[in-house]
Design a protein that fits this description.
Layout: E1 5-8, E2 11-15, E3 26-29, H1 32-40, H2 47-63, H3 70-85, H4 92-109, H5 115-149, E4 155-160, H6 175-184, E5 188-194, H7 201-212, E6 217-220, H8 225-230, E7 236-239, E8 243-245, E9 250-253, H9 256-265, E10 270-273, E11 279-280, H10 297-300, E12 301-302, E13 305-306, E14 319-322, E15 329-332, E16 335-337, H11 341-346
The structure holds 5-S-methyl-1-O-phosphono-5-thio-D-ribulose.
Length: about 350
């Protein structure tokens, strides 16, 4: 089984998701700038995987810092955190991970110890914390899977959009984790994967990782989902999320909103599977979620080949927001939340929410 991301002695190792499925290649990021670039250019993508990469980028930057005074290291931490935080705006897991690393850094710097010892300890503890975030993410996905599998029928076909699988996380996946858990429980689950224009995460990544696992998958273009729902081929839709507001509005890959509306029209449950680190209770509604606008040439070109007249205007919002009224349940490691989300999501955080 492939590894999405890993800490190594040479740096942060990632499977290059831009090159899948044509080639399974790995890249090593040797410094935090390279990690930031890998997040920005989609070498690694998917909210939880971006969070892990962000944590590892911070750890790498602090580890390599030449600063020999606490004040210098603190200034460097902020430079690194700012570089990582400016890569992609929508997935809150990135900001959650940087915040978690900042808390560990501050705790270490407040220790009663000589400066040199504190600096050494900060470097070590941040590397450990980043590796812990990765290990926890996999365990969290297994818990999400278990909670979500209870919602699946004994035999069914599920639609998914984008890639919310092992490639989008530390491993196992959120939406695809639910499917993996259902299959592990003996359920007969088949998947329909939306190709997910324009970046093709469904065609290139979801189809690839499910096929690797021997999970039956059928690829469709995004505009076919309504047809298959109406025909009775699909019995549920499950997607991941990049940020969930306090009222249950869900930001996820562009096209998710259309899937949710179609699912409601066809009486099919629409589920969102995500870790608690994707929930941002500081935002009262999805209108406040920043939506990344990516380059228009990702719409006008396919693998570098133009598919539209030259100089045509194009737009590429990378995410949309699905209003909570279309979401039948939000599946997390802490349990399954349903309407009214303002109450059910808050109840998942007895000790407060630190996502942003
Ligand atoms: O632009 P991407 O590929 O990073 O977008 C990914 C998604 O929208 C996923 O559905 C989401 O991050 C959840 S991944 C478990």
């Amino acid at each position: 089984m492939f590894k999405t991301i890993e800490w190594t002695a040479q740096g942060v190792l990632m499977i290059d998701q831009r090159r899948l499925p044509a080639s399974e290649t790995y890249v090593t990021c040797h410094n935090y700038g390279e990690v930031a670039e890998a997040i920005q250019n989609m070498t690694i993508r998917g909210a939880p995987a971006i969070g892990v990469a962000a944590a590892m980028g911070v750890a790498l930057g602090v580890k390599d810092s030449p600063a020999n005074a606490a004040s210098g290291l603190r200034a460097e931490f902020e430079t690194i955190a700012a570089a990582i935080s400016s890569t992609r705006p929508t997935a809150v897991n990135l900001f959650w991970a940087v915040g978690r690393m900042r808390r560990v850094f501050e705790e270490t710097m407040e220790m009663e110890a000589p400066e040199a010892a504190k600096i050494r300890a900060a470097k070590e503890r941040l590397v450990e914390e980043a590796q812990l975030i990765l290990a926890e993410d996999i365990a969290i996905n297994k818990a999400i899977g278990k909670n979500g599998a209870a919602l699946l029928n004994e035999s069914m076909t599920v639609l998914t959009h984008c890639n919310a699988g092992a490639l989008a996380t530390g491993g196992y996946g959120t939406a695809l984790g639910v499917i993996r858990a259902g299959i592990a429980e003996g359920k007969q689950i088949r998947v329909f994967a939306d190709e997910t224009r324009p970046f093709l995460q469904g065609a290139r990544l979801t189809a690839w990782e499910l096929a690797q696992d021997g999970i039956p998958v059928t690829l469709i273009t995004d505009n076919m989902a309504g047809h298959f729902m109406k025909q009775g081929t699909l019995q549920a839709a499950i997607v991941g999320a990049d940020r969930i507001a306090a009222n249950g509005d869900v930001a996820n890959k562009i096209g998710t909103y259309s899937v949710a509306v179609l699912a409601r029209e066809n009486n099919i449950p629409f589920y969102v599977a995500a870790p608690l680190s994707t929930i941002d209770l500081s935002l009262s509604s999805g209108d406040q979620i920043p939506i990344e606008e990516r380059a228009a040439n990702e719409v006008t070109h396919l693998s570098g080949v133009p598919i539209a007249p030259g100089n045509i205007e194009a737009r590429h919002p990378a995410f949309d927001v699905t209003p909570h009224r279309y979401v039948n349940a939000i599946i997390t490691e802490g349990g399954v939340a349903r309407e009214p989300y303002t109450e059910s999501l808050k109840a998942l955080f007895p000790y407060g929410n630190t996502s942003s």
